[in-house]
Amino acid sequence: MKSPTTAGAKPEQELGAEQLGMFLYQMMLMRRFEEKAGEMYTRGKVRGFLHLYTGQEACAVGAINALEEQDKVVTHYRDHGHALARGVDPNRIMAELFGRQDGVSGGRGGSMHLYDVEKGFLGGYAIVTAHLPLAVGLGLASQMKKQNAVIMCVFGDGSVGEGEFHEALNLSVLWKTPVVFFCENNLYGMGVPFHESLSTEIPKLAAAYNMPAVSVDGMDVLAVHRATRIAVDHCRAGNGPYFVEAMTYRYRGHSMADPELYRLKDEIEQYRKRDAIEKLKAYMAERGDLDEAKLAELGERVEHVVEQAVDFAEQSPNPPISTLMDHLYKETAGG
Amino acid sequence: MAEMRMRDALREAMREEMLRDPDIFLMGEDIGAYGGSYAVTKGLLEEFGEERVRDTPIAESGIVGAGIGAAMGGMHPMVEMMTINFSFLALDQIVNSAAKLHHMSNGQISVPLVIRMASGGGSQLAATHSHSLEGLYAHFPGLKVVCPSNPADAKGLLKRAFRDQNTVIFIEHTANYSVKGEVPDDPDFLVEFGQANILREGSDVTIVGYSGSVHQAMRAATMLQEQEDLSAEVIDLRTLRPLDMETVINSVKKTNRCVIVEDDWKFGGFAGELSAQVMEQAFDYLDAPVARVSCKDVPLPYNRNLEFAALPSEEDVVEAVLAML
Lengths: 335, 325
Ligand SMILES: Cc1ncc(C[n+]2csc(CCOP(=O)(O)OP(=O)(O)O)c2C)c(N)n1
Ligand SMILES: [Mg+2]
What we know:
The structure holds two protein chains of two kinds.
Chain A: H1 17-42, H2 57-64, E1 72-76, H3 80-85, H4 90-97, E2 121-125, H5 131-144, E3 151-156, H6 163-174, E4 179-185, E5 188-189, E6 192-193, H7 194-197, H8 202-208, E7 213-217, H9 221-236, E8 242-247, H10 265-272, H11 276-287, H12 292-315
Parallel strand pairs in A: 1-2, 1-3, 3-4, 4-8, 7-8
Antiparallel strand pairs in A: 5-6
Chain B: E1 2-5, H1 6-20, E2 24-28, H2 44-48, E3 53-55, H3 60-72, E4 76-83, H4 91-98, H5 101-104, E5 113-119, H6 134-138, E6 144-146, H7 151-161, E7 167-173, E8 180-183, E9 197-200, E10 205-209, H8 213-228, E11 232-236, E12 239-241, H9 245-255, E13 258-265, H10 270-282, E14 291-295, H11 304-310, H12 314-323
Parallel strand pairs in B: 2-3, 2-4, 4-5, 5-7, 6-7, 10-11, 10-13, 13-14
Antiparallel strand pairs in B: 1-8, 6-12, 9-11
Bound molecules: thiamine diphosphate and magnesium ion.
Thiamine diphosphate is lined by residues 76, 78, 126-128, 156-159, 186, 188-190, 254 of chain A.
């Protein structure tokens, strides 16, 4: 499915029913996909580390739909939502979680390392902050090759304590690379509240490097979308990088292995009351763009796509042992 | 052919490759206006301009990461690490990104990147600035590791590195920068990876070296010939990954003895890998256990006498050979 792009539209311009419907569909798909992934983990079909995106859907949908086809996305290991928003095939994402041959990474990456180069989805990165310098380099390549591509670089609040965060922001401003630094601040890096691991506020860090920075409500897909469209336009016009902090919340544990000793159930309930999907539904209903029938239809579509993804993953074979040593080096003409 | 020093041969390689391929560009600390810490990139900024010869902040991890990103985006960058000692700050990018992305993405992504770094002790720079860790990088599947010992190889191997679709760690021993030699000027002169060079033929013992230690090996061979009337075969590995074991094994089958010389520490060093492979592949041909002549297991001290006592010398090599007869 092609993601709807709003590129070219004025950031303040209101979105039409069709685009809102697509946003809602994508957010519902992510929610259902993650529920299913969690279930598959519990049933032992998915192993390793599994980080669910539940609660943060407005971030990926708002930000990634601000991109054009030639643009690129790199993100951290909580990457299923970003891949789905970029139009990566849900069947192949689920197959990757299952470790199967038809997974987007051929079963070599797993949940944390999804890649679909054709879609401009250049990866989930599981070393916190490692992909920020990569985004600067991708931006540099776009600039040097005059490709006019913007790099959407997604990371969590936990990234800001790493040296590479500062190295990347500084370099990006110095070289004016077209990178949107998109920080999903879900208040925790594993179990540590971000204000206990940072002595200031996140946008101030970007401002310190002379990078324009905003903070938006990450539980509001339209607010995220508006802010990231401004950011993407800024980058595409050759003005250098732009920083967006989206304040959000994850409903599930850090990973499936998290006993969640560091927060109260009540806090989760408070955020659920501000749920981004419910918010968009209410907005659409108010505009007359959503009724019971349409909602039911969306629900069925999502259910169908997720069921199909599980079937696809189940049926995909394990990669043959004979391929173990494949792709260690890329063939080079003459050696 | 022209006679030049290794640093000039390296610069020629970069110049020629940059003229050939517009996707190649250079970045690193002080490679532009300063001309490079070891003057390897001197003059390239003037010739190619700021877009293709980029001075960077002192941020090893950031600039190697940016190099990887640019490579993923279709460029073919060279990142200079100033010296191998500072590359530790970029180790995660080299090991977790550059070496793994091709495999982990099931072949979708490639990282055609050259990372150059100076290495080696012997200059009284003390422990933090004197590492020889070619073997460390050779440990990681997904990387290629190149370490020339002379100007012609330096040029041919560096040019070859820019034609590779993978990340090449290109290590230059500082003692070799001023070594002179004849260098081909044919712009298509390449030295293939994975082809060791027999620098001197012999029949009594095989001495294997790479990078800086090739010179101790050669001097030892001369001493053995002149003082002991022994004929040593000297092999320069040139690249550690891919590794040309065939040349080493064939030599050992002929000489029945093997000494490995390296500047790295003995404990866990690359000589251990070589010696294990000789044992696995030529056990029945050996007349004596393989000997390793390595750096003493100590951080290299500043004091000249102490530093020399720690580093392997040609006398150490001669001694090791005589001990196995
Ligand atoms: C360099 C590094 N250090 C530590 C870890 C272990 N780790 C994985 S996720 C994580 C928390 C990161 O939190 P944040 O960036 O806020 O992202 P979130 O999980 O909240 O989406 C940690 C410490 C890691 N993967 N990489
Ligand atoms: Mg977080």
